[in-house]
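Hi Prof. W.,

I finally got the ABC-type quaternary amine transporter prediction working! I wasn't sure whether to trim anything, so I left the full sequence exactly as given:
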Amino acid sequence: MTGLSITGLRAEHGRNEVLTGLDLVVEDGALACVLGPSGCGKSTLLRVIAGFHRPTAGAVELRGRTLADQRTWVPAERRRIGYMPQDGALFPHLTIAGNIGFGLPRAARRGRVAELLELVGLAGLGERHPHQLSGGQQQRVALARALAPAPELLLLDEPFAALDAALRADLRAEVAATLRAAGATAILVTHDQDEALSFADLIAVVRGGRIAQTGTPDELYHRPADPEVARTLGEANLVAAELDGETGRTAFGPLPLTAAGTGSAQVLLRPGQLRLDEAGAVAARVLRSHFRGHDHRVELSPEPGRGLPERLIAYTDTAPPPAGSPVRLAATGPAHAVGGGGAGAASRLADAGASVG
Ligand SMILES: Nc1ncnc2c1ncn2[C@@H]1O[C@H](COP(=O)(O)OP(=O)(O)OP(=O)(O)O)[C@@H](O)[C@H]1O
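And this is what came out:
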């Protein structure tokens, strides 16, 4: 069943058109993530969905019910949509139980509050006040409060932005599990690609006030529609290739493609697809590297030409040699074509005598 359906949505702030014809469908029970840089209109989108900001055109439907279009405007309080802001915004003078139960009918309050405290892992803390909890616990209270009236849709506006990195990763995994346990449909907005990749069933990348691409985290990471989406989801090496059916001929040699094609193109190789290998087809120099616990991030300057960018990024399990060292690089497919390589790409590749399969 379709949970949320948005078509042709336009919205402005003064004369500034922020949403320019945005379409988005989120299935019932799905966790979706709207990803885009600061100022691209993510909060405006949430505010339109929630009923705090009137669009200039387009339609918003929730479970088949029209919330907004040219003729209809359902006020926020009648939308059955929950909203969890960045800072949680708990009522400081109310207990945790009071915060969660705020707005619930009196008769149902006690039971529902106990259920939610349990769901967010704060059973027994209902009588405390917000200032007696950690930042992460406070965000869990905010989540419980947003879920309390069993909304049909929950909107989360960068809910983990104020927390430190380790806590953020733990809490978003917990929140995703809590939302799944509650069977909630949720939309989270963020500019953090890791958050999007780890949280969502569906990611929608916003660009220029509309959706550039939607897909599963795996689809968007490995098969982005264009170079910009590729970079939005993580570090990207874009390399010239001659597509020949199922194979792309690159400076690294022939690589299998994610989809058959012909002609000149740029292909995406994520840093995890490059490795230092004495038998590798590309000569390069180590520019710098740093150890990240689970791997090393290595910046490399490849030999010029051959359709390679000035700088390549590789993630390697073992420590690379020091900066300045010559190395050889190999790549593992599949390579994904992200757009035409331009007139020069193929000839540069041919001029340089790239190994072709
Ligand atoms: N109340 C307002 N009045 C005028 N302009 C606004 C208002 N709110 C937002 N804008 C502008 O609209 C654009 C989109 O803002 P919005 O907050 O939706 O973006 P965002 O993607 O959520 O950004 P961030 O991640 O920084 O919160 C920005 O250029 C912003 O300056």
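The chain has nine helices and 18 strands. Does that look reasonable to you?

Thanks,
D.
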